[in-house]
Amino acid sequence: MEQHVFQLLEAINKNAHLNQKKMAELCGISIGKVNYLIHDLMKDGYLFSEKKGRNMRYFLTEKGIQFLQNGIEEFHQKKVNIHQEQITEIKQAVILAAGQRKDFSKPAGLMTFDGIPLLKRNIDILQESGINHIVIVTGYKKEAFHELPEFSQFQFVHNPKYKWTGSMASLALAHEYISEDFLLIEDDILIEERAIKELLSYPQRDTILITNESGSGDEAFVEIRNGYVYKVSKDIHQFNHVDGEMVGISKLSYEVFSKMVAEFKEYNKNPYMNYEYMLLDVARHYNIGYLKMHNLVWGEIDSQQDYEVITNKTYQILKRKEAEYRENQIKSYLIEALDVDYEDIHEIQPFGGMTNKNFKVTIKNKEYVLRIPGNGTEKMINRKEEKINSSIASELGIDTDLIYFNEETGVKISELIPNPETLNPKTAKRQDYMVLTTAVLRKLHHSGAQMANEFNVFEKITEYEELMKAAGGTPYPHFDEVRAKVMALKEIYQNMNIELAPCHNDLVPENLVKSGQDKMYLIDWEYAGMNDPMWDVAAHSLECDFTPEDEELFLSLYLQTNDIPLEIQQRVIMNKIFQDFLWSIWTIIKEAKGDDFGTYGIDRFNRARQNVNHEWIRGMMYEIKK
């Protein structure tokens, strides 16, 4: 009913000469209802009338005008909820790095802190958070970005008109490279990593990050109304009240971004438009949220003076705060897992780990190892299987006691090996160390234990290829050629009727830790499962760069005979090929997610390509063709 009242008052306000029939048409209601409403509105003091000739004229009283005004204001406060689905995981980011600062001879994002470019620091934080599809919009001195090899994996878009355009023109250039929600960050922002991580996890898809006013003199002030962004401007005179300052990092949904770009391309005649104001234009119709973080350590590098202040003061505070934040994070894992007090944790030291982050921690004078899984491992590792397999290793006495294992997060705590000496490719070749290593493998392989899963290399290859495509990884040259030969070996290998046994499947020397004179431990069971025992032998030979003589000695110690069957030797070379091919794909995936393994992946791939031409392999292929 109130809607019809509002419509009727609005129609009368625009034209006092309307008769009741025309009012009914305009409001979409019957003449009888119009007559009824007018009677009540006049009785309640919203309308008065006067007769002129044969016609009746209606006018709004002051009370009626106020009611109409309030209704119009309420209507304009209403906005469309553009999203039907919940928050999505952010995997993409756009970095705006086109602008020129007159005080710098290079882009602001390439200014360094502790020798590390600001842009690299921010990208490291993004990748740690699982964001690997990164678009960098350049302008001033674009070639400077390409001089840094660690940026080669990212998508660069150049704004040739950066001198004469604002940030919205740069952002619009990234549109064709963005396909989902993303994080938008300006290249000159130094900020605590927790700010980026909290923004990513904030439960609203369109959110700008704001904080307390900095007093820098270049603030983008923000006013909030009804829980959403209402106004953004650098002119404080436009505000009834200021709720914070925009930092320069925002989370945008693909839908809102597309509307920003469409409006910019269709209506904008001002090339100097900045993205904040285009976002505000969209906010007239759609709700744009905010996350306000108090006491945030951050800075914007617009001048040499900014850079000096941030280097000498802000960055030093930020380092201390982040170190404390990371320590508190690690301690929170330990407190939750072991039910200890904060004061019980005395020491935290990082060490080792190619895939994960490992820490030596001291709690109540007892030493443990905390394992925090690395970025992207959740899709490559089944943690429930790992927990079962790790428990088997502990029960066999070939790994230390498993104290805690979280199947959801992959966080693991185990006892620290006493007097540890981690093997390396050189020490692994010592005969006395080989004796200990082969004894551990025999104990594992002959235990009769049933692990939670089967490690099927051919299924893993298919699985990793799908992950490689999803991560946007690029296969090495000749990939299809090598893959075809690997698959041709599959039939030969599977016809050998190999009896599967519990295997470690990742026998790098660093996963073997000697304790004292005669004890060897085998650690890190992420890839464990039922497999051909020769997989472990082949893996150790590859990872330690065994010579043919080293490998012969290792096999004779493992088999406890100098008479090594031909089939065993063939299984070893085939497993080497399978592993090199599989782990080369693994490297492509990891590097697509931001890790850097140097030449590790291509070296393994090239070795697989070489070994598929081994004389035994060629001979077996020939027999199959016949």
Explained architecture:
The protein has 626 residues and is an alpha+beta fold. The protein is 43% helix and 19% strand. It has 20 helices and 25 strands. The strands form seven sheets. Strands 3, 6, 7, 8, 10, 11, 12, 13 and 14 form a nine-stranded mixed sheet that branches. The chain has a five-stranded antiparallel sheet with strand order 16-17-18-20-19, with helices on both faces. Strands 21-23-24 form a three-stranded antiparallel sheet, with helices on one face. α1 (2-14) crosses α2 (20-27) and α13 (431-445) crosses α17. The longest helix is centred in the middle third of the chain and has 35 residues, at 304-338. It is elongated. The relative contact order is 0.07. The mean pLDDT is 88.
Main sheet specs: 9 strands, mixed
- Briefly note the structural class of the backbone: alpha+beta
General shape: elongated
Q: Helix coverage percent of residues?
A: 40-55%
Rg over C-alpha atoms, rounded to the nearest angstrom: 34 Å
How many strands? 25
| N- to C-terminal distance | 88 Å
Q: Spans of 5+ residues with little confidence (pLDDT < 50)?
A: none
Q: Could you report the average pLDDT, rounded to the nearest whole number?
A: 88
Beta-strand portion reads 15-25%
Number of helices: 20
Pfam families: Choline_kinase (PF01633), HTH_24 (PF13412), NTP_transf_3 (PF12804)
InterPro entries: Bifunc_CCT/choline_kinase (IPR017190), CcrZ_PhaseVar_Mediator (IPR052077), Kinase-like_dom_sf (IPR011009), MobA-like_NTP_Trfase (IPR025877), Nucleotide-diphossugar_trans (IPR029044), WH-like_DNA-bd_sf (IPR036388), WH_DNA-bd_sf (IPR036390)
Protein name: Phosphotransferase
Organism: Neobacillus sedimentimangrovi
